[in-house]
Amino acid sequence: MALMSYAQAACLALAEVMRTDGRVVALGEDVGHGGIFGQYRGLRQEFGAARVIDTPISEATIMGAAVGMALTGLRPVVEMRVVDFALCAIDEIVNQAAKNRYMFGGQGRVPLVARLPIGIWSGSAAQHSQSLEAWFAHIPGLVVVAPATAADNYGLLAAAIRCGDPVIFMEHKELWGLQDEVLPQRTAALGKARIARAGSDLTLVTWSSMVHTALSTAGQAMQQGVSVEVIDLRTIWPWDRELVLASAARTGRLLVAHEAVQAAGFGAEVAATVAEELGVPVRRLGAARIPVGYARTLENAARISPQDLLREMTVFVNRGGGRRSMA
Amino acid sequence: MALMSYAQAACLALAEVMRTDGRVVALGEDVGHGGIFGQYRGLRQEFGAARVIDTPISEATIMGAAVGMALTGLRPVVEMRVVDFALCAIDEIVNQAAKNRYMFGGQGRVPLVARLPIGIWSGSAAQHSQSLEAWFAHIPGLVVVAPATAADNYGLLAAAIRCGDPVIFMEHKELWGLQDEVLPQRTAALGKARIARAGSDLTLVTWSSMVHTALSTAGQAMQQGVSVEVIDLRTIWPWDRELVLASAARTGRLLVAHEAVQAAGFGAEVAATVAEELGVPVRRLGAARIPVGYARTLENAARISPQDLLREMTVFVNRGGGRRSMA
Amino acid sequence: MPANIPAANASAGDHLLCLYLTMARIRAFENAAEEASRGSVAAFGATTDAAALVRGPLHLSTGQEAVAAGVCANLARGDYLTSTHRGHGHTLAKGADTTAMMCELFGRSSGTNKGKGGSMHIADFAVGMLGANGVVAAGIPIAVGAAHSAKIRGSDAIVACFFGDGAINRGPFLEGLNWAKIFELPLLFVCEDNRYSATTATDAMTAGDGAAERARGIGLAARSVDGNDVLAVDAAARELTMRIRSGAGPQFLHALTYRVKGHVSVDAAAYRDRGEVETALESDPLKLARERLRALGVAAARIAQVDAQAQAEIEAALAAAGAAPPPEPVEAYTDVQDTGAGQWR
Amino acid sequence: MPANIPAANASAGDHLLCLYLTMARIRAFENAAEEASRGSVAAFGATTDAAALVRGPLHLSTGQEAVAAGVCANLARGDYLTSTHRGHGHTLAKGADTTAMMCELFGRSSGTNKGKGGSMHIADFAVGMLGANGVVAAGIPIAVGAAHSAKIRGSDAIVACFFGDGAINRGPFLEGLNWAKIFELPLLFVCEDNRYSATTATDAMTAGDGAAERARGIGLAARSVDGNDVLAVDAAARELTMRIRSGAGPQFLHALTYRVKGHVSVDAAAYRDRGEVETALESDPLKLARERLRALGVAAARIAQVDAQAQAEIEAALAAAGAAPPPEPVEAYTDVQDTGAGQWR
Lengths: 327, 327, 345, 345
Ligand SMILES: Cc1ncc(C[n+]2csc(CCOP(=O)(O)OP(=O)(O)O)c2C)c(N)n1
Ligand SMILES: Cc1ncc(C[n+]2csc(CCOP(=O)(O)OP(=O)(O)O)c2C)c(N)n1
Ligand SMILES: [Mg+2]
Ligand SMILES: [Mg+2]
Known about the structure:
A: 5-stranded mixed sheet, 39% helix, C: alpha/beta, 5-stranded parallel sheet, 7 strands, binds thiamine diphosphate
């Protein structure tokens, strides 16, 4: 058990897997110098330039090459820095990595992990702030992971590398420095959510950085007599339907909150499923459908604030899940 | 009023707008020879190679150049052949076209229409068969259109070219030959759905090619005593919430059906919204989360069949919207 | 079936006959596929016929067989290859089984891809053929990765990467060549230049002096060759693959040929001059090879025998494919992914 | 403020002084921005300070001013320019208002972008500056489109497209150059080669003989120039822009310079040799220009006066930006799109 940062936890997971599995390589821009967030620190020193590969600024080829590596016996971990730049490699993710195994009738497999950090990164404006997990959840062939803690970044990254199919691994850019206790050798299971806080009035499903807002806000809600069960989804696809449905059946209300734009966000999938399966009242809280602006006031308008979340929880429980305006 | 095909209707709309607005140009691979589906037939002859521009196979630059053209006084109509190839131009769509106006504080605007045909195109397998409208609905700055008829392909394409902001215009590859009556000069309004068939037991929201399945199936359902109101959404973003909510409030049940993968598809947005706002029972019917296979049996497994849709409608109405298994 | 790699000590005639068999097999295979695909796809004004046995867009490499045959004669089974949408020839030349390929085009579960891919995604990983690709230029980064992997793993496999003249205008061409060169990867780039990209004459869309010059601008050694002369392709490929095997890094081959048919089988290619095609047919690679074989003293009967062998193979493949069952619908849910696969809507 | 375009009949000294003012203004602007950005962003081990006035990643062009000044001196107001993440210099040199730019960096609604863009998206469409860009190489296709548009519209505007040495390894570089050449567009490509791409020395990531050679491989005429010598850049740009204006099609300029600071303001650039930086500082473009000015007989006092003018402008800009109000939250919902905009969740 050791206290470490979200970035350090990723380094540790990668280092441990690389020590025991010679097929694992890391590639991307600036990984050789430790990555600009320190998420590859020390790896070049330990594993050398042949396995911790600095690449040209060629996102399409970074991802495409990783597919070729994966098909021929390696297990590449691909760094894209921010999901926004991975948009330069979308054909390679969606048409190649995700479909290869199927399209070729299982002749090959593509065991790669693509690290596509999401989230608002203070003051970085529209092109460095997106959360696009819903996109990848929509694509057959992809596993999608969004860890909220250092412990999960450790455990889920290790699990992702071992997965055997392409995993879109979405760290959050404002969590790199977050510290918590990591239990080495404890890999988390893909597809399993975690009840981060138990409660009885409302099930709040969330993931990534929003988990922390949810936990602090749930404490405040409790003071107002509203007991919130917070579920950290951890894996976006496959998401833990059983756990979520069981919780929502128990509490009778479902709220999904995420940093991504609400319109066509993954919250819609969770809410729609719960509505279909249980018929209990559902609500969503996601970002307005606006790009992330630069000025602090604008950026804040694109964020879900703790106040927004608290209001949504308490109003929902107190009104019993009725309509809300189309503001 | 003239009977014409979906492809001809698009040609007509484009030709008419090009005649009256010198800023409109068309560009893409093979548009000079009429487009491989005939959707640009005759335009090169009428407007010349300077305005009907054959391009290299450079999707990123086709889209990026269209952004530069739009910023400097033109109104480009961009051909991508199938949405799958537009994945080679996603940065240009999402980070550039969609965000430009906002990011630069309204200094410029990007009045372009990107034609990204969707849908299963018989026997074309995984990389030529996707329906990705949900992706674009998730991106602030984009309008998303999916016409189901020749009349709408005419009216909505003309409206899209006049829109002033980037429009993702998603024709369906298996509708090119579909014929119906087109009323020239009648532009459709973006954002307005259409009640394609009135009914009282169930609201069925759908779009694109699935509208035709819905209409024929609704007839069969009627014979079984189930009255289905079919709404052709036409514009995916902004979608016509008012019309859908009013209909669902009236019928008391909402079913959304689409050809796209159900998981994180746009049906989730519609279903979640209706559940949130009305609390009426909702269901979705979209494709399984599998790539589209080549063999007919496999391709059919990735399609929503009329039988699937009929079963879903009748079971829904007869059981009163209860649970369904997680098959 | 084994790839046709001429024996090192073969006579000139036997050597060429071996290459000729590969070409004849490709020609026969594609002729049969074209026949079985009538009405396969709606495009270029064609309407579809639900009864077509081979479905979807079918891209034929008729007239380009010498490139596939000549290059692949210099690849071992353990070497890798990536291809394009026009990949039957590359796949056959790399040694894939004709029957399994025909089954794939017929959408049978006995196909190379279990019926999941069809013509545009034909592949046979067992012989190192890592796949045709429906996206222009998308095979390039994959080939780069396969070569990088070989280098990292210390394998002596090399990779051949085929792409068209149109593909050199897509970004991955630049990125892939640059990458291959800085890491000095064991990779042969082959630009199979048939002068057309769909309905467009590629020349007008291509700045500069073409593929080889572009490759040189990125620091690669590049050679041009008459892509209809199978011996010339074979000789160039031999030299380049030997260089690659000796550690000289990536090499580039520009093979000039001609797309005799339309872009897809339903394309009548009305946009080009019929005379152009007729001139091109004069240098049909099979015709040229037959002339050369005769000049080398190979008897007409032996050539006819090879033609007949190729034809018989294809007949057998057609019969097998026609009789094979289609995949069960449940197979639509396999090989998607292990975690969170398939069925869930 | 007007762009500094030296008068045609200016003396050599006045001509250079005019270019020098542009460089001094950029230097002063970026020094002030850097100061105001302390603690702006978490990366390279830095932690953030919520009080930073300039937020987010700040990419400084310190030491590269001669490229912006020399090229833009040859652009008219109606000409267009696209830039990179490192775009302050290009924007100022194109004639954008210093105060509006500083307001933008401070996130004020009086900023060029109304506070919506910040440093990475700085733009001033009024002077033809179509935007910095947070995505490497993304400005290239946009510039191509602007030039194509000028050609179609029969406008006599030309376009300058700036990008870094790292950008030449991304696909759009190839695609954009090819496109510009086949359509013979009025476009000046400027590779501002500061030898680094973030923490990586670009040379090791770049195959072949570099940007100019690569451009030639795609059929463009290309020139290389000492990017720290503002007169050399100016002269080269003059020649190339004149060619473009006379209809010669796209031209390519490779300007060699050096990134004196870290990749972003919080990057201490510990990955490179301090000596390398010190050597580079000896050919600082402002220092070189001052020496040249003295040699041309311009009095030290006149140079100091220009320095003071630049400094005063920036002080005024800082004061105005400090006093300006931030955008109202409601402005977050404007300029998204007209149809189906903003507020809906
Ligand atoms: C990225 C992408 N853009 C467009 C297409 C449509 N398309 C398929 S083949 C083709 C022409 C390719 O030309 P070339 O590379 O010369 O190969 P050839 O067809 O001549 O073998 C085009 C444009 C595609 N498949 N992928
Ligand atoms: C497509 C893309 N990949 C990666 C990045 C991250 N990034 C920002 S600047 C930069 C280095 C760019 O190098 P160069 O083009 O030489 O420009 P310079 O920073 O030296 O001005 C990188 C890798 C990005 N912004 N966009
Ligand atoms: Mg070709
Ligand atoms: Mg640089």
